[in-house]
Hints:
Elements: H1 3-14, H2 21-38, E1 46-52, E2 69-71, E3 76-83, E4 88-91, E5 110-116, E6 119-123, E7 131-138, H3 151-155, H4 157-171, H5 175-193
Helix pairs in contact: 1-4, 2-4, 4-5
Amino acid sequence: MNRAELSDALRAYLARPNMSDGDITTMIGIVEGELNRELRDHPRSKILAEWTIPTEDDQGEAYTEDTPILPLPVDLAGLQSVFDGYRIYHQLPQSSLQDPNACQQFSGTSGGYIERGNCLYLIPTPVRGTTMYIDYFAFLRPLAGGLDTNWVSTYFPDLYIYGMLKESAVYLKNDQRLAGWQAEFTRRLDGVQRQGWNQNIAAAPRMRNVR
């Protein structure tokens, strides 16, 4: 189901055809926050992305130096692994940046990375033109703007509906319905959380060029 269909379903369940889009937007956002916490490690949330370290700037001028900085995808919820076609990078403590011998501990097919906000600092520094691969868990695509579906709304729309219903009970101060809708949402969420790899629908990796 897409965003419009979920909104219509909520209005029908509540018998409130005039419920505003703004109120529904708030409920959807709250539900997505909960789903992002509860389904963070779900197999359907796992993404393999690639990014080629640019050799030219935006004006077409060639870079004269290599860079250790690897930008991270904006929807990253949890990092699994970082590698190129030759080397696997392992997480290092923050103090490694102050260690002049940090890069000497790696040789052959091994490397390291340090988390620095929305990017990684790679040791040793890869050469420009290297294609890096990032295996990670992604946040749900929010049902906003031109993106009106995600894997939960497509395969498990009942999670959105019952999540929105329990939030509507809070909003409308309907204490009599809150417990029942909360219990039903929790029951259905538990079923999705327990879904194994053998039940996962295969999909092509979402590839992005992070700049």
